[in-house]
Amino acid sequence: MSSSPDTPILRQRRSPRQIARRATARLVLVVICILLLLPLWWMFITAVKSNHELAAFPPTLWPQHWYWHNFVAAVEFYTFFLYLRNTAIITAFTILGAVISNPIIAYGFSRINWPGRDKVFIFVLATVFIPFPVLLVPLFELFSRLGWINTYLPLIVPVFFGNAFWIFLMRQFLLQIPGDLSDSARIDGANEFQVFSRVILPLTLPAVGAIAIFAFIGAWNDFLGPLIYLTSSQNYTLAIGLTFFHSEHNVELNLLMAASTLIILPVIIVFIIFQRFFISGITLGSIR
């Protein structure tokens, strides 16, 4: 019986050059991770510092006293829960629109043969390269004529018509599923919608989960969209509400960082919980 490549005997035969190469790669990754996490760490420690410690020079990398009350004060200092509710509504409908529209559109581009399918897909994919500022004025004019300004509709409705990158991601994932599964379901009497909903869709859950995470992060952190279409402070999201509040009032830096920490915390939690689901949805779609 031949031993596997990961047996301890072969592991001991690795040359010093291979060990040094692996150690160097891991060291570089650790350094990069530290550099990427440094802004988050600085935001957090600023949020738990007192006003007196914030004025100290040189700044401290570890708070002398942890002022957890700053988070409570930040929530009470401006209408945090109102902005949280508005952001949650937009994010929930954005995720719903993304997971409904993109799998259906990608299914039509990958599993159904119709004249000009590939040419239309290239046209859809080319829209990824159109800068958003080019579409800004026409979209604003369109939504203004529809009476959607200062509502959530301009931020939600377009998602129900698909996103070019998410369609591409789903299409690549669907192309890896054998066509025999669809043919077998059709032989058993299933129509096209039944083939999609009962056979194909359950197999695409990793890709759908990745799209849901993309939609969540994009809607939760969106600043430009609410800034353009929302004019009433009662409809502001967390990102735009916090920025306007800081510009209109003299807010302490530690309270501002405490509010920013609370805003970014859901994104970190979602990614930590669903990172394996997210990575599998991305990598499985890139094998073909």
Write a concise keyword list for the protein shown above.
MetI-like fold, single chain, 288 residues, mainly alpha, 2 domains, 71% helix
Terminal-residue CA separation: 33 Å
Poorly predicted regions are none
DSSP helical segment count: 15
Task: Give me the CATH architecture of the largest domain, please.
Answer: Orthogonal Bundle
Please state roughly what percent of the residues sit in beta strands, choosing from under 5%, 5-15%, 15-25%, 25-35%, 35-45% or over 45%: under 5%
Overall pLDDT confidence? 83
CATH topology of the largest domain: MetI-like fold
Kindly describe this structure.
- By secondary structure, the chain is mostly helical.
- The protein folds into two domains: 8-71, no CATH class; 73-284, Orthogonal Bundle (MetI-like fold).
- It has helices at 8-12, 16-47, 51-54, 69-77, 80-110, 117-126, 132-146, 153-156, 164-174, 179-187, 192-200, 205-221, 224-229, 238-248, 253-284.
- Helix 4 crosses helix 15.
- The radius of gyration is 25 Å and the shape is globular.
- The model has no long low-confidence stretch (mean pLDDT 83).
